[in-house]
Amino acid sequence: MATNVDIQAEGLAPFADLSGLEATLREMALRPSDEFGMTELEHGAQCAAALALARPEDLELRIAGLVYDIRQGPFHEEIGADAVRGVLDERVAALVGLHVDAKRYLVATDRGYRGLLSDVSLSTLRAQGEDMSEAEIVRSKADPHASDALVLRRADDAAKVICKSIACLDVGLPVLREVA
User: Fold this and answer.
1) Predicted local confidence at residue 163, as pLDDT
2) pLDDT tens column, 121-147
3) Angstrom distance (rounded) from CA 129 to CA 71
4) What pLDDT score was predicted for residue 62?
5) Rounded to the nearest 5°, which phi and psi values hold at 168?
6) What is residue 168's predicted lDDT score, i.e. its pLDDT?
7) What is the mean pLDDT of residues 58-79?
8) Per DSSP, what are the bridge partners of residue 32?
9) Are 25 and 71 in contact (CB under 8 A)?
């Protein structure tokens, strides 16, 4: 697990305010995604758009879809949750922190789910601990945010459409500001 010293050294400290989060989202518009032929922001915006269709009244879930990959690398879910926690609602931070566990849960409980994952996602799954154990599944089910994390994960899986036009920040920033 990353330590606070590691996080500070890599410039991944929590956001001090909303403007820092917004600046990082703008940087994501320039950062290519690992596998999808789109930027990280386009991927997050597609995820948020899918969640807006699935749960139009749930602004926090939509924002979690926009920012869940705000950090990259090992333990990005934990580092990302900590990064947004002081700026966004605790539920948003919890969903950011649960998106990897949601993948591991689905691999363990949905027989066909592993077959839906890309090569990159399968590679990261190995690094993230593969599918959940029975004990982890029980703990996951007890988490009050677990079902929403599964919805977020399914939206993440659907948010990989190259050339799908989404007005990334034009749509996302007003909702982000409302939730913050």
Assistant:
1) 56
2) 888 898 888 999 999 999 999 999 999
3) 19
4) 95
5) -50, -70
6) 54
7) 92
8) 39
9) no
- 33 three-class SS: coil
CB 152 within 8 A of CB 51: yes
Helix (H/G/I), strand (E/B), else coil: 10: coil
- Tracing tokens 């956001």 back to the chain, one arrives at 15
E-assigned strands of the chain? none
Joined tokens for residue 74: 């090992």
CB 63 within 8 A of CB 25: no
Residue 114 CB contacts under 8 Å (≥ 6 apart), including other chains: 107, 122, 131
Q: Determine contact, residues 1/97, Cβ cutoff 8 Å.
A: no
Which domains does the chain carry? 13-179 (1.10.3210.10)
Residue 47, token pair as written in the block: 């995820």
CB 41 within 8 A of CB 173: no
Tell me, what amino acid is at 53? L
Q: Vertex 51, ends 133 and 134: CA angle to 5°?
A: 10
- What is the DSSP secondary structure assignment for residue 14, as one 8-state letter? P
Residue 176 has pLDDT above 90, yes or no: no
Confirm if 133 and 165 have CB atoms less than 8 A apart.
Answer: no
Say how far apart CA 107 and CA 113 lie, in whole Å: 6
Q: Give the pTM.
A: 0.83
CA–CA separation, 9 and 6 (whole Å): 5
Residues 6+ apart with CB under 8 A from 169: 25, 26, 29, 41, 45
